[in-house]
Amino acid sequence: MYWTYLRRELSGRTKQTAIVATGLAIAVALVIIVNALSAGVGAAQAQALASVYGVGTDLTVTGAQAEPTEGGRGGPQFDFDEESGTTAEDGTTTLDQSQLMTERGRATLDAATLDTVSAIDGVSSATGALSLSNTTFSGELPQRPTTDGTTDGTTTEGTTTEGQAPPADGGQGGFGGGSFGIDSTSVLGIDPGVDSVGPMSSVTVSDGRALASSDAGTYVAVIDSTYATSAEVAVGDVIDLGGEDFEVVGIVASSSSSADTAADVYIPLDVAQDLSGAGDVVSTVYVQASSSDAIASVETALAEALPEATVSSQSDLASTVSGSLSSAGSLITSLGTWLSVIVLAVAVALAVLFTISGISRRTRELGTLKAIGWSNSRVVGQVAGESVVQALIGGVIGVILGVAGALAITMIAPTISSTPSTDTGMGPGGAGMPGGFGQAAQTATDIVLSAPLSVWIVVTALLLAVAGGLIAGAFGGWRAARLSPAEALRAIG
């Protein structure tokens, strides 16, 4: 009896059913698409940050930003050895020298910081790394005339011009048109044999082998596959870092096809500390928490234990991602979410209005039912049942539209760009060189955006539709319960 009456009432008011179902269907579809896109952007941010974060890394601890020195020229300087070049009879000096230098503009951390981090409750594992830049200076420099007109490299005041770094204008500032080149390679000193956390957790070995614990203190290196291709270096070759020869024992590539590795070259940490002259320090400590639930508490504990360091989580690093990926994230977070909420609210309000309006038009019918013995609860149940069925129809249609929309986005696979802001230590002065031979590098990465679906999104959207129907049914039932048989008899008369 109940279902028969329900079916007849709905079929007799197809216009109202269609309008209510359509409104809820649009709202449900938007909820599904917006949440799927949000999940896609989150995955894209993880891909963009994989190279600087590490797959197995939950937190990073880095040195604080260094205070700028007077004149804006801080950090290490490129010092030429007395025997680093040969001077021809015309006074032209040919130089070819490389030097490993620490990251400019950021303080390093004492190696004991690693012990402090490891002692924090909730820390599963931790490893340190030293970020360096191998700057190679090669070319010819003409001898700068001295104050007394000679070119023997010394002035009457005893100041030599040999061994000075070239000016910032590419060798045109008083050197008489010298020709030289400066190449910079990013180098990361890591604890050999540690690959569960840190930079090596986000790479795979494509040729040769990775660094092992036995490589500590030896001049061996693992290089990035992209760098190996551009520099034409293979396993077994020798590369120059800081004036020393390193044997290439392996080539690695990022685990994600859309991300780069953290550096061009990886060498043992103790060797990096020794060659760079930095001493027993690290620039970054990579931390893995014992569980995802412990990340927040570990981050707080690290900040308290190391007040002068910078503690970052993946969510913190995600805020540094710029480009169209950041725009997409902002659009979905603000406009998409609010649009879904507004449309859902409008759809529910529309369902309530149509239900109450329908009750007003059914005064004779509902009053007669109460006159022949229907209780208030039965009348309310009838009205609420009609609203819930209308909501279910809209919810099912909305789920179909939402799933179809998410699948369409995944099939179209729009490409967006991301730029994790990564300071290579080159700074305004270019890795310690006066005058500016480099800037902070930003590596743009093209990422294919997808809209992954999950069961809970679909179920939640369907429950929202049912909730909308229940709200409309509650208002309609309240209105129907207030009707009396007397009103029905007056309407009939």
Tally of separate domains? 2
State mean pLDDT (0 to 100 scale). 74
Could you describe the largest sheet, including whether it forms a barrel?
12 strands, mixed
Q: How many helical elements? A: 12
Description:
The protein is α+β, with helices and mostly antiparallel strands. The protein folds into 2 domains: 2-49 and 325-414 and 449-492, no CATH class; 65-307, no CATH class. Helices cover 42% and strands 22% of the residues. It contains 12 helices and 17 strands. The strands form 3 sheets. Strands 1, 2, 3, 5, 6, 7, 8, 9, 10, 11, 13 and 14 form a 12-stranded mixed beta sheet that branches. The longest helix has 40 residues, at 14-53. The protein is elongated and about 120 Å long. The chain starts with a helix and ends with a helix. Mean pLDDT is 74; it is low at 69-76, 151-176 and 421-443.
List its salient traits.
elongated; 12 helices; single chain; 493 residues; 3-stranded antiparallel sheet; alpha+beta; 2 domains
